[in-house]
Amino acid sequence: MNVNAERLWRRLEALGALTDPGSPYTRRSFSSLHRQGRQWLREQFLAAGLAVSVDAGGNLIGRLPGEDSGLPRLGSGSHTDTVPSGGRFDGIAGVLAALEVAHTYQDQGVRLRRDFDVIDFLAEEPSEYGLSRVGSRALTGDLSAAMLAYESPAGGTLAEGIAAVGGDPAALDRPLLGNGEFAAFVELHIEQGPVLEKESLSIGVVTDIVGITRMDLAFSGQADHSGTTPMTIRRDALVAASRTVAAADEQARAWLDRPEYVVATVGKLDVKPNASNVVPSGVDMTLEVRCSSDSVAQSIVEQICEVGKAASEQLGVAFSSALVSFSPAAACDAGVQQAIEAACRQGGASYKFMASGAGHDAACMSKLCPAGMIFIPCLDGRSHCAEEWATKEQLAVGAQTLYDAIRLLDRR
Ligand code: GLV
Ligand code: MN
Ligand code: MN
Is residue 78 helix, strand or coil? Predict the structure, then answer.
C-alpha cells in the first residue's frame, strides 16, 4: 500500500473530535466549529506541501502542482460540515483521503502531469439557510440571487455567510469554473447504506447519483382553545400537514416495485404555537423527494402538493409551497468508472458497481467534467447518526484506490 493508513486515521480522529460536545458529531457549516475545522485543515494542507486558497464560493482548496499547470487539472474531495448529530465519516473521509493521496505523492516524489486539487466544498449538507451543496453549486453557477438571499433563523443571508468564510458572493452570478478546467474529479465517501458490508466488498464504483428536490411547505390555520373548539370548526394546520406527510410516504411506496428509485421524507417540521392545549395555527415543513428520474420526481412532488392543497382546503387552512432546491440526477462518467475499476484490480480490492441514494458534491462536478465516486463500506449501513463507522483498513483501501485512480486519470 502506498498511502499512510495511520496518518489518514489520525487526521480523521482529530477532525472528527471537533464536534459540538452536546450533540456529537455536529460541525454545522458556517459555525465557529466548522471554521475551526477548516483552520486545522488549512494547516494539514500546508504540512502536505499544498498551496492553499479559498475560492469565491467559499470552497477551501489545497493544490498539488503538476508538471504542466496549463493542462486541465484533477480534483478530489468532499465536505467537512455535518448534519446535526451526524457521524465522523460523512464528508471528512473524502477530504482527508484526497489529502492523504496528495501527501503521499509529495512524500514519494510522484509528480503528476496535472495539478491536483484537494477540495473541501462549502456546506454540502442542508445548511441553516436551507440550501445544500453551496460550494459546488457556486462552481457550476447554480447559486441564484434568490438562493443567496436565503436567511438563517439566526439572521443574515447566505451571501453574508459565504463572505464570512472568505468567499466573494458578488462573483457568484456566473459559474466559477468553465467546462474543461478539470480533466476529472473523483470523490471518496462512505456508502451510507448496507450493500458493501453485506456483500463483503471493499469498494463501490458509483454509476449514478440520485436527484434531490426540496420544497418548503407552509400551512396556516387558526389557533384556538383545544378544549372548547368543536372539531367541526377547527382550522388545524397540523392535521393538513400530517395528511401531506402521509401522502409523501404513500407516493414513494407506490414506486417500490418499479425500476425508478424513489424516497420521500419530511424531516423538518415547525409547529406553531406548539402547545398541548392550542389548536395548531401554523406548520412549516420541508419535503424532500429523491429519485433516479427527474421527471418521475417532478410528478411525485406535484401529487404530494395536490394532497396538501386539497387537505388544506377541506380544513380551512391556507397552503403554500416553494421550491428550495432541485439537483438533477447525475450519471458518473464511464471513463472515471473504468479508472476506479482498474485501480481496484491493481490493488486487489473487491468491488461492485452501484448507484448512490445520497447526494454528493460529485453530482455538481459532473456538470463540469468527467466525475465519479469511490464508496467504502460503513458499519450496519448507518449514516447521518453518531453510530456512523468505518474501519481504518476500509478507509485505507479506499484511499489507495483513489491514489491509483488519480494516477491512471493523470496519464490519460
Ligand atoms: C447528503 O448527505 C445527502 O443529503 O444525501
Ligand atoms: Mn451527509
Ligand atoms: Mn456527504
Answer: strand
